[in-house]
């Protein structure tokens, strides 16, 4: 039988950006990990790159509504994230894979994903089908009824991705999703990302520049909690010169941008590369720019 | 419903919609979905080779379904599996209460240990169900749409349903009126949730347990007499405390959005 499509699913989004941060400040403990960050992300797969301690995980946690922003403004899926806002609507459309993926070891994969679907307030009747679909998509169908504690690291990561995509999220946040995946699984995972990214905003943080080059259309580079550069993968590759460190064009581009940032030559405003998205970008600003 | 398609259109559609424009195909398919007669006409219009192929596919799928694993059986108790993590905390609470009963029965001269322990009995399990340290998936729970006051109340209720029967047995064995152990127990539970809105439920529960031990349990054990707050006559006090805590909890809870362990 065909799945019925509800009116809510076919309704066009009424927001310009799935993620829209202006001068966002977020703390990890007392440390200011995200420092006046401006970011606008629309539909597609975005790779979040940055050196260790750049604030990637804190940014992910803030966007996942785990950490409250301590300054600036943040809109997710068109809804403001403020002190006492009701986040349920955002959270229903959210998929999140934390860096440290905690799970209940006695649960089977199916039970765990079902529990997460329940937590995301999915309609009761839709849960079993959605769970099976999510498990199929990450290639764990043969192990759906095995307990989580018997899975290997790569399978756990895939179970984590399954729970993140079970509700067909509008905003999917994956923190280091490729850790522990073998090369073949990484290729499969990139396929999955591209597929999901056709109608959903995916932000995936990673240390592996090659993952970004292969799976992401758009790259966000942050360092010390600030946006260093945003543009598409080709532009990132073009940034690299012959003298930069790295084995591929993308890696050289990454190294060149970081070097320029550390040398103080690249400012956030100048480094924003997306000419193609420039006009759209301004449109989004104007639309959401009214004081809340 | 759209009008029935002509036989010519149906046969062209059955041959793979050659020469039929997309809008017509959409209209036809929308009609076919809700018209059994036209579906039957379509089945007749399909050429024999396709019919044979469809039959073969049906037979093979049937064989596959019969040979494959059965459908996964839904488990009603799935979500209580989450509570299974807290079994050891519940067991610790139960053992403490039962030890208090044994002590009280053996040493009649001491102040009632059951009454002294009852307010603290649910606190550790309550801390355990809403803490980052004991919930491995706290980060995921915190981003769920259900995170917040109602999930916390749900888990607390589960703890109370497990702890109260043990206390009831203890109260029955030692002959104390329910108001003397149940009201302090509920008041302390509500207090830990209300205070938890400010400092985190796990910290609030532990702080209340330590505070009660230091301020009431130790002095009454040292002084060999039960404090006035645990008399039968103190029930209005406990009811008042309970009401205030519940009011605070609900008032603060409206904007509450956090997951385990967070204010």
From TrEMBL, chain A:
PROSITE patterns: ABC_TRANSPORTER_1, ABC_TRANSPORTER_2. GO terms for molecular function: ATP binding; ATP hydrolysis activity. Residues 19-249 form the ABC transporter domain. Residues 259-292 are annotated as: Disordered. It comes from the Bacteria. Keywords: ATP-binding, Nucleotide-binding, Transport. Pfam families: ABC_tran (PF00005). Residues 279-292 have a biased composition (Basic and acidic residues). PANTHER family: ABC TRANSPORTER, ATP-BINDING PROTEIN (PTHR43335). Belongs to the ABC transporter superfamily. This is ABC transporter ATP-binding protein. The lineage of its organism: Bacteria, Bacillati, Actinomycetota, Actinomycetes, Micromonosporales.
From TrEMBL, chain B:
Keywords: Membrane, Transcription, Transcription regulation, Transmembrane, Transmembrane helix. The chain crosses the membrane at residues 82-102, 108-131, 152-173, 179-198, 205-223, 235-255. Coiled coil: none annotated. This is Zinc-finger.
